[in-house]
TrEMBL record:
Keyword Membrane carried by entry: yes
Membership in a protein family: Belongs to the multicopper oxidase family.
Record keywords: Membrane, Transmembrane, Transmembrane helix
Record-level Gene Ontology MF annotations: copper ion binding; oxidoreductase activity
SUPFAM superfamilies attached to this UniProt entry: Cupredoxins
Presence of the UniProt keyword Transmembrane in the record: yes
Name of the featured protein: Copper oxidase
Source species: Mumia zhuanghuii
Amino acid sequence: AVLVVGGFATFIAVSFLSADLDTRGEVAFDRPLAVPPLAGSRVEGDGTRVFTLRMQRGRSDFGASRPTPTWGFDGDYLGPTLRAEIGEKVRVEVTNAVGETSTVHWHGMHLPPEMDGGPHQPIAHGATWKPHWTIDQPASTLWYHPHPHGQTAAHVRRGLAGMFLLDDPAAKTHDGTLPRTYGVDDVPLIVQDVSLEDDGRLVETPSLLSSIGLLGDTVLVNGTPGPYVDVTAERTRFRVLNASSARTYTFVFSDGREFHQVATDGGLVPSPVPLRDLVLSPGERAEIVVGMTAGERTVLRSAPTPDRLGPRNRLAGDEDHLDVLELRAATRLSASAPLPRRLAPAPDVDPGDAVRTRRFSVGSQTINGRRMDMDRIDAQVEAGSTEIWDLSSDDGGPHNFHVHDVQFRVLDVGGEKPVAALHGWKDTVLVRPGRDVRVAVRFNLPPGAAGDDGAPYMFHCHLLRHEDSGAMGQFVVVPPGQGTDDETSPAPAT
Ligand code: C2O
Ligand code: CU
């Protein structure tokens, strides 16, 4: 019966040809992909859009013999998708009911430091935290997750993560022709790898041999193991978030098909980028548009690091193919508009404006040889100024680098122009050993920011074990003229 479907037969053939790489065995793809619900909200008299989130414990069926104890926002695992428009005032009322102090960080959001949800904004069990800010950045796919000092990997892995989508009502000419019906032809994919104990519990302790952190053998997409998605349109936009604690994915389709990247972490790219593979390290997002014809099937999977990058760029755990999601096109597809040729202006940060260059050398427990200290400020940057940050690996291993509050422009990678997939706004970037990454960052003050006496923002490795072990530093945005070079100073009392 399966052979009557041409696309599926192709999939079998391709799988057979690469069978020697498929050491993880077959993924059944027998569960429909869950799609996180859109969060409800109310709008107050002054126009503030208010969301509520409750961090709670639950149980999830990940295919083990018994349910897996998990955490979620408003549910058993992961959280609803928050959605707001550029210029809107928002408030999120977050109640912690997980039994441990945690935080909620708005990854990629430009907002005042005391609203950021990093380690300086703890939410005790039973407490409600009510951060508020004005959305002031391009349309993009952001996300939220806990950030308690030393506990981020555990809290994220247990399931506390969700998407935060920003829409630009004024930019309909570009964004408006991309697929945009949530859950139909605009589908979030939160990709995580986990391992399960025999009794269903999540494995929480990385092997002593793994410096990178925990690499799981089960891939969950939106919390669904072995998922398939029914594709109903000629073109589908997938908003892919790598919410894994350690694994970097090289996403490909099993039939090698081309797809287009339309957005990076912080918004649309200048024009659609044709790709056959897409590398995403933990914390990074990409929006891709995939075309399908009626009745065909293909599998989104992670491929080994291409050999052209050399053995040092092999990433732990990526020596095998890892199946992620099967796409099943319906026998009749709704028509989709062609991809727009132009999407958004290129990031307008000019490295020629940079007032200083800072170097950050990332290890598995340190940045520039120092471990994270909540009472130390590692960099004071000037409001409105542009800096170049030069990012490298300290220890011969891969890391990645995330900066809170800002979106930056990647200038070069290993001394070469970045690939087109890095041409948009970024807040997290993979740093492979021996291939330094230079980025240009402009530190605009968010509306309502205190400026010089707020809490610090974080920068860190987003391999969560490294972040938790101390590969993190703190910066504050100070008035023009008061910035300092790469020297440390005591943190302001918060
Ligand atoms: Cu996604 Cu500081 O984190
Ligand atoms: Cu790291």
